[in-house]
Amino acid sequence: MGAHVTWETCPGCGRPAALGWLDGDPVQFDCPRGCRLPPDLISAMFGRRRPVRRSVR
């Protein structure tokens, strides 16, 4: 699949935060309020997901 970003709820402050994915695994977390999650917690909180398939018409 590759890399993509989704918006998820930050478990620290409840605001939207960017979550970076690589091949279906969450690999990077960026909260605009500065909340930090260590890599093992990112994986535990958000887990592995199947890539979403979107068709363009």
Instruction: Provide a count of the helices.
Output: 1
**SSE string, helices as H and strands as E:** EEEH
| Residue share in helix | 10-25%
**Total beta strand runs:** 3
Overall pLDDT confidence: 85
Number of domains: 1
Separation, N- and C-terminal Cα atoms: 20 Å
Query: Within the largest sheet, what's the order of strands?
Result: 1-2-3
Radius of gyration: 12 Å
Q: Report the principal-axis shape.
A: globular
Query: Strand share of the residues?
Result: 35-45%
What low-confidence regions span 5 or more consecutive residues with pLDDT below 50? none
Given helix and strand content, the structural type is alpha+beta
Q: What composes the largest sheet?
A: 3 strands, antiparallel
Keywords, separated by commas or semicolons:
57 residues, alpha+beta, 3-stranded antiparallel beta sheet, 3 strands, globular
Protein topology:
Blueprint: E1 3-9, E2 16-22, E3 25-30, H1 39-46
Antiparallel strand pairs: 1-2, 2-3
Task: Outline the structure in words.
- This protein has 57 residues and is of the alpha+beta class.
- The protein has one domain (3-46).
- Helix content is 14%, strand content 35%.
- The protein contains one helix and three strands.
- The chain has a three-stranded antiparallel β-sheet.
- The radius of gyration is 12 Å and the shape is globular.
- The two termini are 20 Å apart.
